[in-house]
Write a structure and sequence with these properties.
The complex is a heterodimer.
Chain A (H helix, E strand, L loop, with lengths): L1 E2 L10 H13 L3 E4 L3 H9 L5 H5 L3 H17 L2 E3 L8 E7 L7 E2 L2 E2 H14 L6 E7 L4 E7 L2 H10 L7 E2 H11 L6 E7 L3 E2 L9 E6 L7 E11 L2 E10 L5 E9 L2 E10 L4 E7 L7 E5 L10 E4 L7 E6 L4 H9 L3 E6 L13 E5 L10 E5 L8 E6 L4 E3 L18 E5 L6 E6 L2 E9 L2 E6 L13 H13 L9 E3 L4 E2 L8 E5 L5 E4 L5 E2 L6 E9 L2 E10 L3 H4 L6 E4 L2 E4 L8 E2 L1 H22 L1
Parallel strand pairs in A: 4-7, 4-10, 9-11, 10-12, 20-21, 20-22, 22-23, 23-29, 30-36
Antiparallel strand pairs in A: 1-3, 3-39, 5-6, 7-8, 13-14, 14-17, 15-16, 15-18, 18-19, 24-26, 25-27, 27-28, 28-29, 31-34, 32-33, 32-35, 35-36, 37-38
Chain B lengths: L7 H13 L4 H5 L8 E12 L11 H7 L3 E6 L5 E7 L6 H23 L3 E7 L3 E9 L4 H9 L9 H11 L4 E7 L8 H9 L2 E8 L2 H4 L5 E7 L5 E6 L1 H24 L3 E5 L5 H12 L4
Parallel strand pairs in B: 3-4, 3-6, 6-7, 7-10
Antiparallel strand pairs in B: 1-2, 4-5, 8-9
Helix pairs in contact in B: 1-4, 4-5, 4-10, 6-7
The chains are: A alpha/beta, B alpha/beta.
């Protein structure tokens, strides 16, 4: 039992005062009797005559003393605290992982923990050194050994739930490093138990785990991905049920904000259900959402960017060209198959890009084409022969930016035909050496000369030109990946020619990215990210799906105990901090007051 | 007749009562109080031989004629029984307007009147710490006024010591008789020794105890300084319902004590509540005295 206002104990002087008043009061009422003889006999029989002992039987006095005692007790504001000793170090660890955002009724677990924590902090005696550490994937010391509880409360207010998993191991090693040796340290963790636990024993004498929350019902979209199917691409959603009982999941899928379908599935406790959706043609992004409310809202939505999910498949047909192989290796996102001209006829698969080195099949392949030294039978070239003049490059063309032709020498080359609509990029005399164009939906780049007949592969121009050509042929997205887990960084593949790069976050915030930046890491809110690159007046738009897939955090059931090495720490749900009793005391005092009044009335 | 004790109406009733009463008080008790002294009277008692010096008028000459011896006739000597009315005039009797004393005086006045009307000898005394005032035996209707005047002059004063007062009273009493004590019996030093002494003197004692209702059932609760009106002693006491009960029990015990004392010693006893009318009480006390059945 502790007192919040011990100064009020001075009112205890009222007790002797009341007794004195009683003693004084008794001399005032005189009553003349015919004889006190009988009274004397009565008094001799019953009680002795000292005034102190006479007070014993005075019910009114007794009640008044009790009344004052109770009121004084109420004034000193007694309370009980489960753990509290003065002069200690109290280190408070607050789990800010995603699962702490679980709603317990109307309030989130984090807010519940904050309230309990605030009570704990306010109830600390003076001299207690308070530390507050936010436990996320990396611990963050918000207050370090401060005796000012207001500072702690101030910091506490600003804490927001994170999107990561709490790592208790790093937090505890930080605590061990922080505390003074020999200090009387008490470590209190406010968490739902969904934390990364240390495998080794922790050298902390007093560690308490205060469990926050009780909810365990939670459905989550655990995966949202593309699957190829005979009838076409399908989108797959996996619905995970993290509770122990069967729940019904209603899932809605939207294509570019238009409803595609709604499906329901019964998911047994602890199991998963799979739902498949047709992906409409030319879909740029899909959104799947779980209808209804459950513990954690964050894992109820997922996004998918369909086409960019796969790597571009490339077929290289060559008798052996190490330069081309190297070029294709340089570029990420390509799945390169190789074939010899003889083996080409056995290939059944379709590729997005065919790189044909000095080869032309009987039938033109369906896909983008990069033709190196094609035979004239292809119809793209004619009249091989030696070059007649110096190389002339179309330097204005974006594909030739930063490509230096000055040290490039070419021995012989075909003359590339330039049909209407095609562009000539490089020529020598009357011969076109490099031309770009398109036929139907396919883009075609034709290089008229054999790389072995030139020193181009040995020059810096070659990888730059190669990448530019590949970029043009396979317009890759600005993002290297199309789906990441929230909080993880994503690599960017910005066009070197991009004049402006704008990123739109799911909440609509627009951010101008620096040109040439290679990585974007602010993916903390799940949703659809839109990247817009302006290249030569053209707006290239790419989407990134940032999803919250975290089985550890979706499992919101609070842990009854956590294990620190070999040591098991049982949860204490709720802390009995500052349980004040003054209201009860006042109530009892009021009851005594009524009783006193009744006794008084009865006496008169 | 001038009096301060009675209302004229009551006086008339008293006269009637006196007329109705045939027997004398003394007559009622004469069997028990026959004098042991033999003397001149009409009632023959015995003979004895004449010795020189005897009054020769007492010689029975008829016996001398027959027997030629001198005998003296002995007669029962009849003496009047005196009624003594002892009124307690201590301060306690004057408590709360003196109702108790007034009643005692009225009772004494009425009883004395009846006795005088029956030609009895009536004496009176005021008792406090000792005998405060004394009226020797009176006889005849003519003395009624004197008797009443004596009573009406009595004022409440001083402490009570019945033992001492009764002993002193004994010195004034020469003949056997009846003593009626009108008192609240609240005598710290007690009353039994004095009464026993009076009985030893051959007195028939009658006790009329007067207790006010406030004394028997006080309305007191809380803290009081109780002042004894006689001794002025202050007793501080916190009166709780419990204590009050104990007091009432004490009063009952006290009254029972007096009553059983009287019973043991063949003393006629009546407890008088002043709330009853004087007439009623008088009838009661007369019945108690055995004057009327």
């Amino acid at each position: 039992m502790q007192l919040l206002a011990p100064w009020a104990l001075v009112f205890l002087v009222l007790l002797p005062l009341i007794i004195v008043f009683y003693l004084l009061k008794q001399k005032k009422e005189q009553r003349v009797l015919s004889s006190t003889m009988l009274w004397q006999r009565v008094l001799a029989d019953t009680i002795s005559q000292t005034p102190w002992q006479r007070l014993r039987y005075n019910l009114l006095l007794l009640l008044q003393l009790l009344l004052v005692l109770l009121l004084v007790l109420a004034l000193v504001r007694p309370y009980l605290v489960e753990f509290q000793e003065g002069g200690r170090d109290l280190v408070i660890l607050l789990d800010t992982s995603t699962s702490m955002g679980t709603l317990e009724g109307e309030t989130s677990r984090l807010d519940l923990a904050k309230t309990e924590l605030a009570n704990l902090v306010s109830s600390q005696q003076k001299g207690t050194k308070l530390s507050l550490i936010k436990v996320g994937s990396t611990p963050e010391v918000l207050v370090n050994q401060s005796e000012n509880s207001q500072e702690v409360l101030g910091k506490l207010k600003k804490i927001q739930p994170g999107l990561d998993q709490a790592n208790l191991e790093t937090a505890l090693s930080l605590v061990t490093a922080m505390v003074r040796t020999g200090a009387n340290v008490q470590v209190v963790l406010f968490s739902d138990g969904g934390v990364v636990l240390p495998e080794n024993p922790v050298g902390l004498a007093e560690f308490q785990y205060h469990r926050v929350g009780v909810t365990e019902d939670n459905l989550a979209i655990g995966a949202f991905a593309m699957r190829d199917n005979e009838e076409g691409p399908l989108a797959l959603t996996r619905i995970d049920n993290y509770s122990s009982k069967e729940l019904e999941a209603t899932v809605k899928v939207e294509n570019q904000d238009k409803l595609v379908d709604v499906q329901t599935a019964k998911v047994a406790g602890g199991k998963s259900a799979y739902l498949f959706w047709p992906v409409p043609q030319s879909s740029t992004y899909l959104k799947a959402s779980l209808e209804g409310q459950d513990g954690l809202a964050l894992d109820n939505n997922a996004w998918l960017v369909p086409t960019k999910g796969k790597q571009a498949k490339v077929l290289l047909v060559s008798k052996g060209n190490v330069f081309l192989e190297q070029l294709l290796k340089l570029r990420t996102g390509l799945e390169v198959d190789k074939a010899t001209p003889e083996g080409y006829k056995d290939i059944k698969e379709n590729y997005q890009l065919y790189v044909l080195d000095s080869f032309w099949p009987d039938q033109a392949p369906k896909g983008q084409l990069l033709l190196i030294n094609p035979p004239d039978s292809s119809g793209y070239t004619a009249a091989e022969g030696e070059l007649t003049g110096p190389l002339q490059a179309n330097k204005e063309h974006p594909l030739l930016t930063n490509v230096s032709w000055s040290d490039v020498h070419i021995a012989t080359s075909h003359s590339v035909k330039v049909p209407p609509g095609w562009q000539s990029l490089l020529s020598a005399g009357n011969k076109t050496l490099l031309a770009l164009g398109s036929q139907g939906n396919n883009r075609i780049a034709v290089l008229g000369f054999d790389l072995h007949q030139s020193d181009l592969p040995l020059r810096p121009a070659f990888p730059i030109l190669g990448q530019n050509l590949l970029n043009w042929l396979l317009p890759a997205g600005g993002f290297r990946e199309t789906q990441v887990i929230a909080g993880n960084p994503v690599d960017l593949a910005l066009r070197p020619q991009a004049e402006q790069v704008i990123l739109y976050k799911p909440d609509g915030v627009k951010e101008d990215l620096q040109l040439g930046v290679g990585r974007f890491s602010d993916t903390n809110s799940p949703g659809l990210y839109k990247l817009e690159q302006v290249v030569g007046g053209e707006h290239l738009v790419d989407y990134l799906a940032v999803n919250y897939f975290s089985p550890q955090e979706s499992l919101i059931k609070p842990a009854a105990q956590i294990k620190l090495g070999m040591q098991e720490v049982k949860a204490q749900s709720g802390i009995k901090v500052v349980r004040e009793y003054w209201s009860w005391l006042v109530l009892v005092a009021l009851a005594f007051l009524s009783l006193e009044w009744w006794v008084y009335l009865r006496g008169h | 007749v001038e009096n301060l004790l009675f209302e004229p109406q009551f006086l008339r009733k008293l006269e009637n009562m006196a007329f109705v009463l045939k027997k004398s008080l003394a007559g009622r008790y004469s069997g028990q109080h026959r004098s042991t002294l033999k003397g001149q009277s009409v009632e023959f008692a015995d003979y004895r031989s004449y010795v020189s010096g005897d009054d020769f008028r007492q010689v029975d000459w008829h016996a001398y004629a027959r027997l030629e011896r001198l005998f003296v006739k002995l007669f029962m000597e009849e003496k009047d029984l005196t009624l003594h009315l002892l009124v307690d005039t201590s301060a306690s009797m004057g408590w709360q307007g003196g109702e108790k004393l007034k009643l005692a005086k009225q009772l004494a006045g009425a009883l004395g009147y009846l006795a005088l009307a029956n030609s009895e000898q009536v004496g009176a005394a005021a008792l406090g710490k000792k005998v405060i005032n004394f009226l020797p035996g009176q006889r005849g209707r003519a003395t009624v006024q004197r008797f009443w005047n004596f009573l009406s002059r009595l004022e409440p004063e001083g402490a009570t010591d019945l033992n001492a007062a009764l002993r002193q009273m004994g010195k004034h009493i020469k003949n056997p008789g009846i003593i009626i004590l009108l008192s609240d019996m609240l005598s710290p030093e007690g009353y039994s020794d004095g009464i026993k002494y009076l009985q030893k003197l051959g007195q028939q004692v009658v006790i009329l105890q007067i207790l006010a209702p406030e004394e028997r059932d006080p309305m007191l609760l809380g803290n009081f300084a109780l002042v004894d009106c006689e001794s002025n002693l202050v007793k501080e006491v916190s009166i709780t319902p419990l204590l009050l009960e104990a007091y009432k029990k004490q009063v009952d015990e006290f009254v029972t004590g007096v009553r059983s004392f009287c019973l043991e010693r063949e003393i006629t006893y009546t407890l008088i509540d002043p709330r009853e009318g004087l007439e009623q009480i008088l009838l009661h006390s007369l019945r108690g005295l055995g004057v009327i059945a």
